[in-house]
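User: Fold this; C-alpha cells only.

Assistant: Input:
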Amino acid sequence: MRIGLLTEGGYPFVGGDAGLWCDRLVRGLEQHEFDIYALSRSRHQEDDGWVALPPQISGVRTAPLWTAEDDGVAHGRRARRRFTECYGELVAALCAGTGADAAPEEGATALADRFGSALYGLAELARDKGGLVGALRSDAAVRTLERACRAPGALRTAREARVPELLTVTAHLEHALRPLSLDWYGDDGLGAADLCHATAGGSAALPGLLARHFCDVPLLVTEYGVPLRSHYLALGPDTAAPAVRALLGAFHRRLATEVYRRAEILTPGNAHARRWQERCGADRARIRTVHPGMDAARFADVGEAPDRADPDTLVWVGRVEPAKDLISLLHAFAEVRKEEPEARLRVVGTPAGPEGAAYLGHCRALAAQLFPDEAEGMHAVGDNPVSFEEIGGPEAPTLPDAYAAGAVVVLSSVVEGFPAGLIEAMFCGRATVSTDVGAVVEVIGGTGLVVPPRNPRALAEACVALLRDPERRARLGAAARARALELFTVEQNIAAFHDIYLQIVSHCPVRRVVLDDTGEPRPFATPAESRVPGRWTGPTARVLPRTVPGWATAPPVRATPLAAAEGA
C-alpha cells in the first residue's frame, strides 16, 4: 500500500524530531511504499539536508512552516465575504473557550463541529481561490477576531484583549494555518495515498485532516509526546498576556480535538499521552498504545553477562539538565554512604545546552562539598566517591559500558516523558531505582523500585536495599530485561504498525481502483504484494479513474434462498 508519512520538524531532515523512529519504521515496512510530506521549522534545518533515504520512499515533498509567501492573489468581494464568514466562525469557536464563563459542557460537540466546519471552509477557499496567506495577515482578519472577542458570551479574558494581543493572536493563527495553503491535496499528492500517517499531532496532522476531508484518505496519528501540553507550557504567564494564552490555548485544544475526532486510529506512546487524548474527546475504542521501539541488539552483550557489574556502584546515565534533579540524587547518595561506606556513584552524561552546563557545574561543586576527597594517608591522593563522566571517555567508551559499570541504575527526574534511558538499563539486565514521573511506572511494570520525586531519603533507602541484596538485584534485572525485550523493541513497534495499517485500510473504502492483467481489482493503490514476484507485478495493470468501477456496476448476485439451500 502507499503511505503518506506526515512530519513536522522531523524526518527526513538531519537531526529532526523522531527521525530515528521514522527511519526504522520505513525500513522495517519495506513491503509498502512511502511518500514523505515534511514541514520544516527553520531555514537552518533545511540547509542541513536530509538523511539517507531507503528505496521504498518514492517521493519527498517539503514545505516551510517557519515562513510563507503571499501568492499575490487578491480576493474579490465574494471571496472576501467567504473568508470573513469562515474565519469568523473559527475565531468565534475560540472565544467560546473553556472557563467559568464558557459555554456549557453539552455544547462542546457543537463547538467542535463549528471549528471543524470553519477550518475546512478556509481550506476549500485556499484550494479554489488561493490568497489565504494574505487574507490571514490582513486587517480584516484582525477586525474579525476583535468582533469575536467583543461578542456577547465570549470568554472574559478574550473580551479584555487589546490591539497588541489581537495582532499577536492573528500572527500565530496565520502561522499555524499555513498547511491549508499547500498544494498537497490532489490526486498527485496525498489524495493518491491509501493511508496518511501523522507522526505527531498539531500542524503535522493538519495535512492529514485535509486529505481526509477532500479525498477520504484515512488518517493515523502517532503521538509519543503531547503537543497540546507543550503548547500550554510554552504559553506561560511570563511569555504571553492572559488574552493571548486563552485564545491560543483554545485554538490548539480545538485543533487537537478535531484531529482526535477524525483519525481512524490514534497510537499514543504511553498511558500519559493516552489520557490527554481521552480528555480531549478521543474515542477509547480507536486508541492503540504502541510503545516506541528501541534497538536492543547493542545492549545484548551486557544483558547476557550481568556479573560484569561492580556490586557497590550506582550509575546515572542521561542528559544533564535541571529536570533530571541530580541535586536530590547527590543528597540521597550522601545518605547511602552512611549505610554503605564502599558505595560509589557514577554520573555519565552530557550537558543539555548552556543551562545544562551551568547545572553540571553546580552539581560538581555540591559533590565536592558533600564528599571531600578521602586519602588513606598524608602523602596519598584523595578519591571522591562521585565521578562525572561522558560517553566516549576511558571509563565509559560506549553507552552499554556505562550501564555495565554499576549494579543499580538510578533515575532521579522530576519531569520525564517516556524514559528511554530506563529501557536501556532494562535491556542491560540492571536493577533500577526510579522516581514516579511520566511513564516510569508503565515502563517498569513491577521490575524495579519506584519512589516519589524530590525525596532523597526514599531514594537512598531504595538504593541501599538493592545494594545489600544481590539476589534481589539479579531477579529484578532478569525480569526487567525480559519485559523490555517483549514490549520495547524495534521489532514489536514495526509489527504493531504493520497490523494497524492493514486494519485501517481493510475498514476504509477503496477510492483508486487498480486492475491487474486478469481484470481483478487490486486492494490498494500500491499493493503490499507489489514487491513479491507473481501476477501482482504484471506490466499490464491499468488504473481506472476515480469513478464507480466497472466491476461494481454489474447486476448484484442474489443469495441462494435458505429453504432451497436446506433442500439441497
